[in-house]
Here is the input.
Amino acid sequence: MKQRVISAFFGIIILVLVLLGNQLVFDVVVTLISAMAIYEVINAIGLSKNKKMTAISVLMPAALMSVSYFSAEYLHSLIFLFIAIFMITMLFSKGRYSFTDTALYIAVSVIFSISFLHVSLVRRLGNENLDVLVVLIGSWITDSCAYFAGYFFGKHKLAPEISPKKTIEGSIGGIFGVIVIIVAYSLIAGNIMDKSVNIYSAIIIGLVAGVLSQFGDLCASIIKREHNIKDFGNIMPGHGGVMDRFDSLLFVAPALYYILEFFPIFF
Here is the structure.
């Protein structure tokens, strides 16, 4: 527990420093986190020994982030280019890289690169850290609310074959808890920053985040269970790897980006 608290303390300090930085600093950090998450998953599924494919995978976040500064339409072309590079590398590998492994590299690289890129895109919507904190709260607070709700009220297993400790009551508690916290955060932040607040948007975002963050967590749990590992890494003592802390962002970041773009909380 002491180790977890110390890691969390330093993690919060780093987060504050990143949020205080400009967009470029923020994007560089997001890119590094994305690349580290990709490597951790590739390593977890036993594919990191293939150095060429792994190198291509961890370079994708930086490429997508760079292109995002120009035009979104180029992102699709760049993703196609990376897929082509993966396939061509497979063809010239003389049988060392199977199609199944190559497909896994493509899937992991594309999913994580796009997901984390949307964290950066959220910050560019116009409200900067106000919206970013909505995404982070939606991703991280759900798990905490679900834990306490499950601890006190949990009786029915949610997905015992994937994550035995999760309960339906905990899941529902997590959703309602994050809705309340996002609404409270929106009202307080809006008042401090002299912004108008759309409560209905905050409620919808809380609901979506509460559901999707649990999907991300369960997907990560499937990977760990299938490959018999407890954590994706040990970069954060007591918390595991980057992927262990950011798995909830997988679906939350892209979904909230599009909701916030068309139905902003702050205006």
Notes: Residues 1-124 form one domain.
